[in-house]
Design brief:
This is Transcriptional regulator, AbiEi antitoxin, Type IV TA system. By secondary structure, this protein is α+β, with helices and mostly antiparallel strands. The protein is built from 14 helices and 13 strands. Helix 6 runs antiparallel to helix 7, helix 7 packs parallel to helix 9 and helix 8 packs antiparallel against helix 9.
């Protein structure tokens, strides 16, 4: 996907609507019934006074559960408060480096200083209306603003992870990011955010590929081409994650999601996908341009030293420049 063309993004919904004690009381019922259902385990408490059905809750992913908690908590804050940073990232479907936080993150223009608690991180400061949009009756930072905010807050690695995802998904363009970062030139991690925008690519298709590219750069290896297509006499073999033409090395990131995510499975059983992957690799290894195929998992993608050693042994050359881009 071209970074210059962005589609209209969609936001995650915390549906079904949570059960709120105040609404039950307003309808003339007591709140004891909700508490009893929570005690019996049929309801889950999102925040004090707000519940949701347990069966629905347990069917949600960790990200979706975090979105539901954020929404429930946001409803208890003044309307001018805007969901931001990791809370906004969860709503927009961005990946997370480790795990989703336990607290809601917001920007509150009415505050003069940032304050935090175990359940709420409230940042102060102005927030242009153009950088926000409506979500479930409240406001949330747009994808580009969210990615830049987190790059400035957490640094280069987080920035690349989110920006890769956003560019690939068409959530924003590189030009938009450059403009937003330049507006924050005095920020503490301005250089890191600027470098993340420069390094990011719309061709990264998963967090593991993003971490792999960063580890390859940190290890001082030559930069690979991304999503290179290979064909043989039988037709298209497929696109490979990483390709070093000078050394004839193909690099493939193997994420467990390939064998569980329906978007990749497309109705196939995991065992069938594994068989297809083996046939695909055999065809790649017979290709005249390919000398070696190197595969690695998520843990290795986070270990620049281990990944570099594996690729150097396969024949990938050094770039002469080691360290973070």
């Amino acid at each position: 996907m071209n970074a210059a063309s962005a589609s209209t993004p969609s936001l995650s919904s915390p549906a079904p609507a949570p059960l709120r004690t105040r609404d039950v009381v307003r309808l003339g019922a007591g709140d004891r019934a909700l508490r009893r259902r929570a005690e019996r385990g049929s309801l889950v408490r999102l925040v004090p006074g707000t519940y949701t059905d347990r069966d629905h809750w347990e069917a949600l992913s960790e990200r979706e559960q975090y979105v539901a908690r954020c929404h429930a908590q946001l409803l208890d804050l003044p309307p001018g408060v805007v969901a931001s940073h990791w809370s906004a990232a969860a709503v927009w479907g961005f990946p997370v480096r480790e795990r989703w936080p336990d607290r809601l993150e917001v920007v509150d223009a009415a505050r003069s200083r940032t304050n935090s608690s175990a359940t709420l991180l409230r940042r102060a400061g102005p927030l242009p209306a153009a950088d926000t949009t409506s979500w479930e009756g409240r406001r949330i930072t747009r994808p580009a603003r969210t990615a830049v905010d987190l790059a400035l807050a957490d640094g280069f690695e987080t920035g690349v992870l989110l920006i890769d995802h956003g560019l690939h998904a068409g959530l924003f363009t590189t030009d938009t990011l450059v403009a937003l970062v330049r507006e924050r030139e005095g920020a503490k991690r301005f250089r890191a955010a600027e470098a993340a925008v420069e390094f990011a690519s719309p061709d990264g298709e998963s967090p593991g590929e993003s971490f792999s590219r960063m580890s390859i750069a940190v290890g001082g290896l030559a930069a690979p081409a991304l999503q290179e297509e290979f064909s043989d006499d039988a037709g298209l073999i497929g696109r490979v994650d990483f390709w070093w033409s000078a050394s004839g090395v193909v690099g493939e990131f193997d994420g467990d999601w390939k064998y569980s995510d329906e978007r990749f499975l497309r109705g196939r059983a995991a065992v069938d996908v594994i068989r297809e992957e083996k046939r695909r690799q055999a065809r790649l290894e017979l290709h005249p341009r390919v000398r070696r195929v190197v595969r690695w998992d998520y843990a290795t993608s986070r270990r620049p030293d281990v990944l570099a050693a594996r690729l150097l042994a396969a024949g990938v050359r050094r770039s002469g420049v080691a360290g973070r881009p």
